[in-house]
Amino acid sequence: MAMITKQQYVEYLLATPVNYTCTNLADHLDDVSHDAVSDYLRRERHTARTLWELAQPLITDSPDAYLILDDSVQDKRYSRKMDLVKRQYSGTERGLVRGIGVVNLVHSTGTEDDFYPVDYRISAPDADGKTKHDHFREMLIAAVADKQLQAQTILFDTWYASADNLKLVHRLGRTFYTTVKKNRRVSLTQEDGSIGLEDIDWTEERLTHGVIVRLHKVPFPVRLFTLVATHGDSDWVITNDRDSAVTAQVAHDANDVRWDVEERHRGLKHLTGSAKCQCRTGRSQRNHLACCYHAWLSVNVKALELGKTLYQVRTDLFRDYVRAELRNPRICAI
After folding, report:
1. What's the count of helices (H) and strands (E) in the chain, helices before strands?
2. Could you state, in order of their start, the residue ranges of all structural domains in the chain?
3. Are the CB atoms for 164 and 133 separated by under 8 Å?
4. Alpha helical stretches, state H, the chain
5. Per-residue buried b or exposed e for 316-331, using 16+ beta carbons within 10 Å of the residue's own CB
6. Of the N and C termini of the chain, which has fewer Cβ atoms inside 10 Å?
């Protein structure tokens, strides 16, 4: 019985429209059994290091580039005996779900469709004792010290806007843009004490250039902006860039880049079946996710090459099949 390779598994993830199981893959490869596929996932040890080796020659790195840190949850709500699965908050579901949490690091020049995953960490606190914030800090330090990425602007959402994370980015000499919760309190001056964000007098000058404030446990001042989101609510954005040239438009553009990466993570789930592996062991799930990132990177490259979206590239795979069936249907309407 034949063995399966990583290339075959990654190309299967890109080719299958719905079913991402070991059984389905075995059914579509000659002389490969279900056991051969499941053994492959249990046996191999794919890591995020391989993703970096694949992505490194593809990225256009410079001080003007961005590093975006974000997390996603691989929904496993119906799994009861699967390693790595735990109850956690999902932004997609806006509530708690059972799933596998992943913290992602993505590099971008900020231009449309230029987003490359360069690192990720699976959240497994029961196994390694690390929180998502620990993974955030480890990946950021590795990006600067080991990968030597030049990108100066670091983007992340409210969840990661803790004092420790802000201090780390600042200490690394990088600029952050992140949202904060509307109930966070700030100080305009030492004498006035802390006030709520909505209690600030938002003059025209402050709406354009922001306002310099102090955050609890953060030893340096930050610039605060209030931005009106497309849904009408306000986003509160802070940055440690105190250059007077920084305006609300700059903060808005950075916030848009961060939102774009969330759409990319939806693509990871929808186009590679990252949440669809049914294997129970943690090693199998880790290897499946590693192959999904490889597949995601591959479809990103193809989309840029063709000047299409990720979803258009995937849909094109099935066009010839649909056309052939319409010309000569194997199942005719009665």
Report:
1. 12, 11
2. 6-319
3. yes
4. 6-15, 22-27, 34-43, 48-55, 125-128, 132-145, 163-171, 204-209, 248-272, 282-306, 310-316, 319-327
5. eeeeeeeeeeeeeeee
6. C
Distances (CA, A) of 19 to 28, 72, 106, 271, 272: 11, 21, 27, 11, 10
Half-sphere exposure of 182 (CA within 13 A, CB side): 8
- The alpha carbon dihedral of 307, 312, 318, 320 has a sign of negative
The CATH homologous superfamily for domain 6-319 is Transposase Inhibitor Protein From Tn5; Chain A, domain 1 (3.90.350.10)
**48, amino acid identity:** A
Other beta carbons less than 10 A from residue 133's beta carbon? 15
Write b or e for each residue in 66-100: b if 16 or more Cβ atoms lie within 10 A of its Cβ, otherwise e.
Answer: bbbbbbbbbbbeebeebbbbeebebeeeeeebbbb
| Cα–Cα distance for residue pair 194/49, rounded to 1 Å | 44
Measured between alpha carbons, how far is residue 149 from residues 49, 113, 116, 142 in Å? 15, 19, 13, 9
pLDDT means per 10 residues, the chain with 334 residues, are 86 90 89 89 93 96 96 86 85 81 94 87 92 97 97 95 97 96 87 84 93 93 86 84 89 89 81 91 95 94 90 89 90 91
- Name the token pair of 95: 């509530």
Pairwise CA distance, residues 67 & 257, whole Å: 10
235: its two tokens: 């986003």
Residue with tokens 């690390």: 130
Task: Tell me whether strands 185-187 and 194-196 are parallel, antiparallel or unpaired.
Answer: antiparallel
